[in-house]
Write a structure and sequence with these properties.
Layout: H1 2-15, H2 36-45, E1 53-59, E2 62-69, E3 71-73, E4 78-79, E5 86-87, H3 92-105, H4 130-134, H5 147-152, H6 159-167, H7 183-197, H8 201-210, E6 219-220, E7 234-236, E8 242-244, H9 254-257, E9 259-261, H10 263-272, H11 281-287, E10 292-293, E11 304-308, E12 313-317, E13 320-329, E14 332-339, E15 344-350, H12 356-368
Antiparallel strand pairs: 1-2, 1-15, 3-4, 5-9, 6-9, 7-8, 10-11, 11-12, 12-13, 13-14, 14-15
């Protein structure tokens, strides 16, 4: 009860302003409430916070905190809830990596396969492996860096058309020699999944991951489709004025950042990773093995990334092993932290493009493990 009361008090302290606070998820087990005077003073202290979204904390398989803040759509005054669907950006990569490992267990591909096996005319495809795509060691420059990407990201391309944007670009380095984060590699993995399985990337995720875990509120985001409870994305303009985020078609993000989900669905995903429901323990060990040492990822706040697995950063926070990833994509941001040795998971999803979810998740980690969280934004 002490932990739950502390979590409730701290998250309100960090996140609440004049936000709309929705009711708890049906999974939440929470007791007690804050005194009105203290709650009001906290809201006044943090008035102007840019966080908008949902937060969920799991310990020992039980949700100890789940709450949503502000609006999923500010024009229609629709509040965020635990069922609001957010774009999760690069957290998508862990699902893409899982699908690859599942296909390997089925004998449909090997992580040692060359890209040329699936895309015969891909330059350097005979020296780039699936493993290198998974670990950002392929040398393929990231698609986000190209002006062509910015000019075309409002279209509805096929994977082949997206790949053409970086296909003939020179490599940043010889494959396998360095680490450099590349969304292009995970776009290629999406296409390889389709070639190896004979099904669309979206279908593979639905059949192999979302359906078995009953993640009914997760999927491959497509702007032209009607998706109930999908949040609108926002950013700040001149003078910090709230604005609708620019349109961006998720086909360009594909397996690098094209998925939407909810905090409740990601809770199911977290719990499944403690079992062999999706993947054998042997294959999971490969998934979470630090294949690359000291990846280029922001440090600070006690976070020390020491390796990169398949779609996961691996490091230390609060002196504990953590498997983590954050997501930043037009109008949205997210953080997903798992402490496998402690059975703790912290999920923060936002429909506002900022770094707040990562900072919030780190502060919550400090609180969960008994530290004193910093109050600065």
């Amino acid at each position: 009860m002490k932990i739950m009361r502390s979590l409730y008090s701290f998250v309100v302290l960090v996140l609440c302003t004049t936000s709309v606070l929705t009711g708890p998820s049906r999974y939440v087990h929470r007791q007690g409430s804050m005194e009105a005077e203290r709650d009001a003073s906290i809201r006044l202290f943090l008035d102007g916070s840019d966080f908008s979204g949902s937060v969920l904390v799991v310990r020992d398989g039980v949700i100890v905190f789940c709450k949503s803040y502000r609006m999923a759509n500010y024009e229609l005054d629709i509040p965020n809830t635990s069922k609001t669907k957010f774009r999760i950006g690069s957290i998508t990569k862990q699902f893409t990596a899982m699908a690859i490992m599942q296909l390997q267990e089925k004998g449909l591909l090997r992580v040692t396969d060359r890209v040329s096996k699936y895309i015969p005319d891909y330059p350097h495809g005979d020296i780039i492996t699936i493993h290198q795509l998974l670990t950002h060691t392929s040398g393929i420059p990231t698609i986000n860096a190209f002006s062509e990407y910015r000019a075309k990201d409002q279209q509805l391309p096929t994977f082949e058309q997206v790949i053409k944007l970086f296909k003939n670009k020179p490599l940043d380095f010889k494959p396998g020699k360095k680490y450099r984060y590349s969304n292009s590699g995970y776009v290629l993995l999406s296409y390889i999944i389709e070639k190896a399985s004979g099904e669309t990337y979206e279908t593979v995720l639905q059949k192999q991951i979302f359906a078995p875990l009953r993640m009914h509120n997760s999927g491959y985001d497509q702007a032209q489709c009607i998706i109930k409870n999908r949040a609108s994305g926002y950013c700040k303009g001149v003078g910090d004025v709230l604005m609708n985020a620019p349109y961006a078609d998720m086909s360009f993000s594909a397996g690098a950042g094209g998925i939407y989900s909810t905090v409740e669905d990601l809770y199911a995903w977290d719990q499944a990773l403690y079992s062999n429901k999706l993947l054998s323990k042997k294959s999971q060990a490969i998934l979470f093995k630090p294949h690359v040492a000291n990846p280029d990822f922001p440090h600070g706040g006690g976070w020390h990334p020491s390796g990169y697995g398949y779609g996961w950063f691996i490091g230390k926070l609060c002196n504990r092993t953590v498997w983590a990833h954050r997501g930043l994509i037009t109008g949205f941001s997210a953080a997903f932290l798992r402490y496998p040795d402690d059975n703790v998971c912290i999920i923060v999803l936002s429909n506002f493009f900022s770094g707040s979810p990562w900072k919030i998740a780190m502060r919550l980690s400090t609180l969960v493990f008994g530290g004193v969280p910093a109050l600065s934004k």
